[in-house]
């Protein structure tokens, strides 16, 4: 019970603080500007509690969730396939990774009108935007994770030859010999120091 309270109390207190601050700021807003920042109870009764508005909000929630999950799954599958290809050959990584970084640096909102013109403004174009968002994370993180795994000897490799893990590059830090991706140095027996 104590552990549950220590886990649940900080977010509950933070949420209560945000709601209290919201009420305080909503009281200061002039009456003519109340439409910009209604109090939490006004927002609840004028939107979610109204069945007509609630149905529209739920429809939008279901539609957005379908788009987000479809884009996430497609983006992660493509990203993992790209990561496996990059982990197998350094030349492929050098060819693809800069494009993945460029794709991530372009603001997604700048691409939305182009994607809308090319593919329409329906389900497919929204999924493409979600795929573009998930693609870099899927490919870069999966590539780093695949590279961090020790390589298994291939068929025909010499028996008893020492296995060496490939160097792990995470972009901003050089882990060096003997360190894993969390930065701990592995000692004999698999213990961390």
Count of DSSP strands: 0
| Spatial gap, N to C terminus | 33 Å
* Beta-strand residue fraction: under 5%
Reported for the largest beta sheet, the result is: none
Instruction: List the secondary-structure elements in sequence, H or E.
Output: HHHHHH
Rg of Cα set = 25 Å
Q: Summarize model confidence as the mean pLDDT.
A: 78
Shape: extended
Number of helices: 6
Q: Structural class from helices and strands?
A: mainly alpha
Roughly what percent helix? 55-70%
**Can you tell me the residue ranges where pLDDT is under 50 for at least 5 consecutive residues?**
170-187, 189-193
Write a concise synopsis of the structure shown.
The chain is mainly α and 193 residues long. The chain is built from 6 helices and no strands. The protein starts with a helix and ends in a 45-residue tail after the last helix.
Describe the protein.
This protein is an all-alpha fold and 193 residues long. Among the domains are: 13-49, no CATH class; 54-148, no CATH class. The protein contains 6 helices and no strands. α3 packs antiparallel against α4 and α4 (90-105) crosses α6 (123-148). The protein is extended, with a radius of gyration of 25 Å. The two termini are 33 Å apart.
